[in-house]
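step: validate -> pass
step: tokenize input -> pass
step: predict -> running
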Amino acid sequence: MRTITPISRRHFIHSSAAGFAATVAVSTGVQARPVSAAEKINLGVIGCGSMGNSNMHAVQGQKDVNLVALADVDQKHLGRTIDSLKKAKAANHQPTGYHDYRKLLDRQDIDGVIIATPDHWHAITAIHAMQAGKDVYCQKPLSHNLKEGQVMVQAARKHQCVTQMGNQIHATENYHRVVEIVQSGVLGDISLIRIWMAENRFPQGRGTAPEKKPPAELDYDFWLGPAPQHPYTRLRSHSTWRYFWDYGGGHFLDFVCHLHDLVHWGMQVDAPRTVAAAGGKYQVQDDSDTPNTLLATYEYPEFLVEWSMTGINAHGLEGRGAGVMFQGTQATLHCHYNDFKILAEGKDQQIELPAKTLARSPGHERQWLDRIKTRQLCDCDFEYGHRLTSVGHLGNIAYRTGEKLKWDSQAERITNHPQANDFLTREYRTPYTLPEV
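step: predict -> pass
step: emit ->
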């Protein structure tokens, strides 16, 4: 297994008077402090909402972890999380709270950072963290747009950081077992993979909310960050932000990394050749931008992936509201997070399960912690996470352009529709920019 060599620490110089644009990463020439097997890992967390707290819950019971710093632009989230850690009465979890994540990154005692912000902040915070010499765990989807993922991968390589995209389902026994079955050949030659999600949010959809003054505890302008200026509404903030193109990629992008993971991992591929998609926001009139119904078809060498998503009917396939189905010449396997079922093509045919061949994960967050010490690559490092997230970005671009797109995975460009490449990045609201690497 390839390992990661020591990295140089960085520090940040910034002037509060000049604002965000004054953030500059400067090399100190100091090597990263090695974290030995016997030492504790000092962690910071950026984003203290539901996923940030979930990640903290996963690491706070680890004996070799100190949670030393938290950052959030919502003082209620920040205060509530600090209080919960203090109530745990663990001497190693008495973090300092920061409004501005850059002050957290200034600290030389922090070895790694967990990022659980909304998607539109992932790239900027993660790249700044890597430039500051921190190893990074970042929630899925990895990026808000494809260009951001490219730069995150470049930063991880340049600064030799240990990275993990937060796709916890990847670490489960069931997913490992499904991949072993797919790769064993017992299903035969696989030509079609179906992925589906079905839920019923009729008639309210994601809801409606009036424009109003932001809550006093939320720094809404900083929360918007690189996204366009827009009046505050309850829906354009906590929990429902992902259903607006300014901040996320909708329900589809939210689940691509979970479900399509089995395609890339099981079939040992990293990019489709073409993608086409159609859909819309059907039967509801809510404030969201993103579709509640989507059909997307991906062409890979020798097989197709068919995605279906509906938001007004909870009936899926094979009795599952969501799932993945591999259809081979000898058998079909369908599964979800916690179980799988195999259906043989022949009436009397018996499918023998293969031996276990994949190394099991100690847990998604735990693997990242272990590899901070060994400097080995994680299973869902940023390069793997970027390729997986790109599937969702391409599906959304195909939907928004209404075109079947040809994808050059080496150049990471759409080759048959030049205008579609405009969706590979975004305009950044002044003074925010995507950091150069």
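step: describe -> Residues 5-18, 24-32 have pLDDT under 50 and may be disordered.
step: cleanup -> pass
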